[in-house]
Structure formats: C-alpha cells, structure tokens
Amino acid sequence: MADTASxxxxxxxxxxxxxxxxxxxxxxxxxxxxxxxxxxxxIAIAEQCKKRLQEAKAKIELIxxxxxxxxxxxxxxxxxxxxxx
Length: 85
Prior knowledge:
GO molecular function: exodeoxyribonuclease VII activity
Subcellular location: Cytoplasm
Protein name: Exodeoxyribonuclease 7 small subunit
Helix content: over 70%
Distance between the termini: 57 Å
Family: Belongs to the XseB family.
Low-confidence stretches: none
Radius of gyration: 21 Å
Keywords: Cytoplasm, Exonuclease, Hydrolase, Nuclease
Shape: elongated
Structural class: mainly alpha
Largest sheet: none
C-alpha cells in the first residue's frame, strides 16, 4: 500500500520536500533529534526518487528503439551545419 501511495506523489513534489528538509536541517535552530528524523525522511524520499528515475529510464529505453524503427530518418540527428540548404 505504501508503494501505491508513493506512486501518487509526483517526483517534483518529492524533490520539493527534499529541498524543504535540506533548508530545515541547515537552520542552526533545528535540534539534533529533529535533524535525525529529517535525515531519515530525506533518505527514504531520495530512494523513492532514485527508483522512479530508474523506472522512467527503463521506460524510455523501451520506447526509444520502437520510435527509431518507426521513423527512418531518426538514425542520427542532423546538426546545424549538416542541414541541406
């Protein structure tokens, strides 16, 4: 169930939370116990982000060969100086 809930949270939201955690931990008024709790939460969020990025990369790798095969001109992208006049 926790995995399902994490799927609903966007990676942008997770990254925003990591930034918030970082700001709070950098505040000299944040106590040690609170910092440890935030660190633990941050590690868990970072793992979620890593997993999501790996899943996205795998999905792109699956799509990429299919897209290239369906477009014959998709071999090598043309550079600025390789374009025909």
